[in-house]
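Intended use. Records like the one below are meant for learning the mapping from a protein sequence to its folded structure. Do not use them to infer anything beyond what is encoded.
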Amino acid sequence: MPPGRPAPGVVRTPPMRARALGWTGQSIPIVGQGTWNMEQDDRKRAVAALQRGLDLGLSHIDTAELYGSGRVEELVAEAIGGSARRRDEIFLASKVVPSNASRDGTRQACERSLRRLRTDHLDLYMLHWPGSHPLAETIAALEALRAAGKVRFWGVSNFDVRELEAALRIAGETAIACNQVLYHLEQRSIEHRVLPFCSQHRIAVVGYSPFGSGDFPAPSSAGGRALAQVAARHGVSPRAVALSFLTRHDALFTIPKASSAGHVAENARGDVDLSAEDVDTIDGAFPRGKSGELPTL
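Structure written out for the chain above:
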């Protein structure tokens, strides 16, 4: 998916690095745009931020029917606008909540999301987290949506290794495009089992809340000082360094949320070639901790 073309007069940063999303071969930016809780932001500024991100090449936009009970999908549609060319440049992802994820419920939920997003297809559609409906029914619905051209790829979110194994037994290899999970510097538990498993099975890992949902390391903390040290070497911000660290593996992508154009521009610089020394510095400041259950917000 090529990055969005800039609007007239927009000064661009260097193109955001892209890589294949798991087994799909679909190239998307390693840094995208998340939209969780965006219904709480000033709508005009949020729309402008998403549009600025597209101009800067952050062409992967992630949303969900859960977010603002559909209001965020409508906000995303406003940001994309009616341009078919711009839509074609965007990798658009949404999710079905587990309570809707029966075979027929998944289809109906997808149709509602398509209407709110004002598009005829999604590039990626995910089960938001494991639920009570039989997984085989949900996967059958996702495959039917793909066959019908309503979605190009499907994936899961907040699945641990046991749940991924169950999904693979049902769907087989080269079916699950990604697993979207919580991943930030102070929550690295996916690196123990989830990331290696996904990498082995060519399932992309899309990390959400890469800044810790408002709890980014303070400049005076040991972690903050480590980030500042690496940032100074590269002439970028500590947040750009964090995004670069969280996408250092070929399987990794990240979707920071930004509700202002300034924050988006900062995120668009999160594509730094970190040296082994840089990685060691960050790794030492933010240890992985013990392996355990998959974390969620």
